User: Fold this.
Amino acid sequence: ILRAQVFNEFTRSHPTAGCCLKGDQLNLGPVQIFVENLMSQIDAEPQKRQRLIQQFVRTTLKVSQQSQTLGHESWSSAQNLVYPLIRPASFINAALHAQPNSDHPRPMMSRQQQLAASPWLADLVICYAIDAPETLRFVLNSDLERWNLDPEALHTQAMLNLQQISGLNLTGPRAADGKFLFAVPGQGPIPVKSAWLLHPHLFRHLQSHLRGPILAAVPSRDSLMFFSGADHDRQHLQNMIRESHSSSNHPTSDCP
Assistant:
């Protein structure tokens, strides 16, 4: 249903864009369009359904026009732009299984269409994305096959790219000694804030800014929180995390 509505909006507002709907597959030219993130946004704010669809169409078209090679990148051009992202396993599973009783049925995907992902902690996985102009283009298993690359090599390169980023800028309220009570990353060179949690030098940096023990939470793809466990009660922390998690269009985890 949602794919059909996106297709109808494309044909209404941009009839020459070349959008095509065949069965359960929606394409803009050679690039397949995935609507799972849009689906999550609509589930969170159903009253804004039409506005969100229109915004999605405008953004998708703009990205497509600026990135004609999207979906056809060579490994040599993509390898220095690939970064790891923390996502809930449900983000992967939702795209794999049809839900005939849902208002938004999701068709079964082939292995090639599935996101390349590695298990991480609890119900979280690591996905990988190319930092393309004005978008993050998720790496698929089909990309690995096209690049003749194994998952371990992809993970190694993504972590190497992340390790080369520095300049974590923290903001938040401070205690009398100048250390943060809790902190969030400011704007910086990393494509998605939550990816800082995977940075190999993160906690070495945090030790000079927060009292121990240090707790971290990743409520959404675009947010990350650090807390001094000595300065907060757990219930207050949990409430802050859940509020951020529930208000996000890209929720990740509501647990510290």
Summary: The radius of gyration is 20 Å. Residues 49-66 form the longest helix (18 residues). Residues 97-108 have pLDDT under 50 and may be disordered. The chain has nine helices and eleven strands.
